[in-house]
Amino acid sequence: MRAHVLWLTSALLITTACHVDRPIVDPRPQASVGGTIAGIVTTADPKVAVPGRKVTAVEIKSGSRFDATTGANGGYTIKVPEGTYRIDVELRASETYAKRPEPTKITNGDTDSGRDFVITVK
Fold first, then answer.
1. 37 - beta bridge partners?
2. How far, in Å, CA of 122 to CA of 109, rounded?
3. 3-state helix, strand, coil in the chain (%, to 5)
4. What is the tens place of the pLDDT at every residue in 43-77?
């Protein structure tokens, strides 16, 4: 046990000595923290939720996609990096949007709720 502690202490001292004047820097690019997009998917009757639907936030410039599935109450939450997003919900045959959110700009720490959809059946 004592030899193990001595070895770890030596390894730590050697590693620290190698980086005396230089900070240890992770060369990998860091993704921006971003925020959260949330809303509810309902039908024309706001009491009727639409569970189990795929909701996709698409970053307008890069095309990056982030998905979630609506819960029992039709609610969804998607964590995304900073950017401006178009939000889509999976439609089924004969369904259209009666209400769809405008593009959403997310900055560091934003929580953009109220990004709701209303689906109607033709």
1. 78, 112
2. 39
3. 15, 40, 45
4. 988 788 899 999 999 999 999 999 999 999 999 99
CB-based contact 59:100 (threshold 8 Å): no
Domain ranges for the chain: 35-121
3-state SS assignment for residue 30: coil
Alpha-carbon span 58 to 84, nearest angstrom: 8
CATH of domain 35-121: 2.60.40.10
Amino acid at site 99: K
Band of residue 110 on the pLDDT scale cut at 50, 70, 90: confident
Q: d(Cα 97, Cα 85) in Å, to the nearest integer? A: 18
SS (H, E, C) 72-89: CCCEEEEEECCEEEEEEE
**For residue 25, what are the CA distances in angstroms to 19, 33, 40, 44, 73?**
10, 18, 42, 53, 45
Q: Which residue type is seen at 67?
A: D
Task: Name residue 99's beta-bridge partners.
Answer: 118
